[in-house]
Design brief:
It is a single chain. 32% of the residues lie in helices and 23% in strands. By secondary structure, it is of the alpha/beta class. A hairpin with a 5-residue loop joins strand 3 and strand 4. Helix 3 runs parallel beside helix 5 and helix 9 runs parallel beside helix 10. Bound molecules: alpha-D-galactopyranose.
Length: 393
């Protein structure tokens, strides 16, 4: 009996003890591109506590949370004044930020917030300049899980630098400073850099602690702007890795300025680009079409693929473009895009994608298998639309 007790102890209890004394593994932040919602694109300066709670409720009720959308991100205009100790307080739109975080967490979601390394944010609210450690600690105390840090008025400070190189270094230092402040809190907080893609941020965003970095100026709810941003991401794939993502800005799906084919292009391109998927619409007022676009699980699986390899352009013939992304299981997601407003036949050459023999082809948005194909695939693509394939040996 004694012998048995000893061995039971050795096999079951000791490993448990061992685990409890080993330091916890650091959480891999943003191992896949962050998914969630952000207030800016739809609510702009009108975001408040009630809006955020309603969006969190809708995220659950609509099925978005279960599809992977987790972060509820408050963008600019929540900031109030600093108190006598210099601690930032929310303005009257957000009576109790900790209570709001508790509410969002109780839904199985996470809460994000926004600030600037400059004295003022882009909407001219209080920024974090000179208060970085205090602000990071305040966010941690509230239970914040995500920070978007937007350059804004820091650019005015950079103008005082003696050279462009010195100005650039100031910016990098400012981003590192907040990263270190976030680390010091001990709370895992996703760090999202927003400086509009200046100075090839993709080359250094990771080195200043960014989990993602905006590669462009602001998106808007028009096909021309979305396409200008999305298709300009060619060549950035090599800078994305798990925990470090290129960010071509938040989604406009469901905001009403694009048609179904255009929003399908938006979602498809963002998934091929391993982009963060931050819905930017009002989640309490979604049509079944919008929910379908945002929650297609095969499209989300491409965006969230564990290998974290961003896709890139393979070929272009006028407005017809083929983009492809390698996936963890050896298959490829392939988008045949038509940037022309009228329908166009687009050709994908599977040999160019590394498939010399016959391949299985699935049409993702139509949700059906196209069978076995070899060599080339041609299809009519609607104006401003896309056909998304998953191709495997
Ligand atoms: C900048 C950012 C936007 C948004 C606004 C808020 O323009 O790029 O995404 O955060 O500021 O003022």
């Amino acid at each position: 009996m004694d012998w048995l007790r000893h061995h039971v102890l050795a096999v079951f209890v000791l490993p448990g003890l061992l685990l409890s004394v080993l330091p916890a593994q650091p959480v891999k932040l943003a191992a896949t591109p962050p998914m969630g919602w952000n207030s800016w694109n739809h609510f702009n300066k009108n975001v408040d506590d009630a809006t955020v709670r309603a969006q969190a409720d809708a995220m659950v009720a609509s099925g978005l949370r279960d599809a992977g959308y987790i972060y509820v991100n408050i963008d600019d205009t929540w900031e109030g004044e600093r108190d006598a100790k210099g601690l930032i307080r929310p303005n009257s739109k957000f009576p109790d930020m900790k209570a709001l975080a508790d509410y969002v967490h109780s839904k199985g979601l996470k809460l994000g917030i926004y600030s600037s390394p400059g004295p003022k944010t882009c909407a001219k609210y209080e920024g974090s300049y000179g208060h970085e450690e205090q602000d990071a600690q305040t966010y941690a105390d509230w239970g914040i899980d995500y920070l978007k840090y937007d350059l804004c008025s820091f650019r005015d400070l950079m103008k005082e630098a003696p050279s462009t190189e010195a100005a650039r270094q100031m910016m990098l230092d400012a981003y590192s400073k907040m990263h270190n402040a976030l680390l010091k809190t001990g709370r895992p907080i996703v760090y999202s850099l927003c400086q509009y893609g200046n100075d090839a941020v993709w080359q250094w965003g990771g080195s200043v602690g960014g989990n993602l970095w905006r590669t462009t100026g602001d998106i808007s709810d028009r096909y021309s702007r979305m396409a200008e941003i999305g298709f300009a991401q060619a060549g950035l794939a090599k800078y994305a890795t798990p925990g470090h993502w290129n960010d071509p800005d938040m989604l406009e799906v469901g905001n009403g300025g694009m048609n179904l084919e255009e929003y399908r292009t938006h979602m498809t391109l963002w998934a091929l680009l391993a982009s963060p998927l931050l819905a930017g619409n009002d989640l309490t007022k979604m049509t079944p079409e919008t929910i379908g676009l945002l929650t297609n699980h095969e499209v989300i699986a491409i965006d969230q693929d564990a290998a974290g390899l961003q896709g890139d352009r393979v070929s272009a013939e006028g407005p017809g473009e083929v983009w492809s992304r390698s996936l963890a299981d050896g298959s490829k997601a392939v988008g045949l895009f038509n940037r022309h407003p009228q329908p166009l036949e687009v050709l994908a050459d599977f040999r160019q994608l590394g498939f010399n023999g016959p391949v299985h082809v699935r049409d993702i948005w139509r949700g059906h298998d196209l069978g076995i194909i070899q060599g080339e695939f041609r299809t009519k693509v609607p104006g401003h639309g896309v056909v998304l394939l998953r191709v495997s040996k």
